[in-house]
Amino acid sequence: MRIVGVVFFVLLTLLLYGGSSFYIGKRIFQGLSFVFPHMNAAIFTGIALFIALSIILAIVPLPAGLKGILRWISAYWMGIYVYLLLLFLAADAMLFLGGMAHILPVPAPQSLRFYTGVAVILLTAGLVVYGVGNANRIEKVSYDIAIKKTGLADGMSLVLISDLHLGAVDSEKRLPKIVELINREKPDLVCIAGDIFDDDYYAIRDPEKAIALLKNISATYGVYACLGNHDGGKTFNEMLRFLEQSNIHLLKDEYEIIDGRMALLGRVDPSPIGGFGDLKRKEISEIVSSIDPRLPILVMDHTPSKIEQYGKEIDLVLAGHTHKGQIFPFDWFTNLLFTVNYGHYQKDGDSPQFIVTSGVSTWGMPMRVGTQNEIVSIRLS
Description:
By secondary structure, the protein is α/β, with parallel strands linked by helices.
C-alpha cells in the first residue's frame, strides 16, 4: 500500500506540474503572438518543454557538465515558475471577476490579456532579481537564553547555523562570508543543525576548497553538527569523510560533554532522503538516560517536528529545515506545518526552549523573498 501511495503522489505531482507549466506556457505564447503573430509555435514549445523538464532532467544520471547546467536552469526556473503561476492566476482571476461584474468586456480582448501578461512578467522579473540579490546577504540574529539548571553554562556563547546545502546553486559562493561572520562572533561553540549537503556529495564543485574554509572556523570548544534530511543517500560515506576532514564533529544520536559545563546532543533526522545507511533514530529518553541530570542539555535536531517529544529534562533545542518558507508565500505553509516555524519558542516555564533558524543558505531556488539567510548568535545565562 505504501508503494501505491508513493506512486499516486508522484503521478499527481507530475500531473499538477505539467498542467500548470502548460498554462504558463500558453499565457506567455498568447502574449508573444500578439506582438509576433507569425512566431513559430514549434520552436517556442521546444524551448518551453526543455525549461519545464529541466527540474526532472537535473536528477537523471547524465554527464557532469550537462547535469550542472540543468541544475542551474532548474534552480532558477523553480522560483520563476512559482511567481509566474501565482501572478498569472491572480491576473486571470481579476479578468474573470471584472467580466462577472460587467466592469470588463467578456471575453477579455487580446490586448488586455497581453498587457496583464506584461505586468505579470515584469513583476516576476522584479521579484526574482530581488530574491537572488537578497539571497546573497547574510544577517545576524541574536538571542539571550536563560538556562534554569545550575549555572554551569552561564556566559557561554554559541553560533547556530543550518542548511548550508553545499552543492546547491550559489551555496559555495556564500561559504567564505559564512565562515567570516562566524569567526567575527568569537564563539565558544559552533552548532550546525543539519542539511550541510544537498543530497549529493558530488554536486559540490570544489570539495577541497570547502573543507579548507570550514577548517578555518574558530571556536573554543569546536564545531559540532547533526544530520539533516538532505545529508544522506548514495554518497553518505563521502559526506562523513568530508565532515571529518573539515574538523566538524558529527553527533549521530550521541552527546558530547562540553568542558564539563553542558551536554550537547545531535539527533539523526527522522526522514532522510536516501537513508543514512544503518543509522536509525533513537528515542530521546534512550540517549539522555546516561547524562548527569544536573547538566544543561542542548539538542541539535534538524527538523522541528513533534516537539512534544522533548520534556523538561531538555533545556534548549536548536533546529533549522523550514527556511522560514524561503520565498513568499511559502512561509504561510511552513507556519501551518510546524508549531515553531522560525525564531524562539517556549510553550511554558517547564518546557524546553526552541530556536529555529531560517538557515544560512538556500535550497533549490537561489532566492529569498520575505526571508533572510542568517547566522544565529546565542548567549546562555
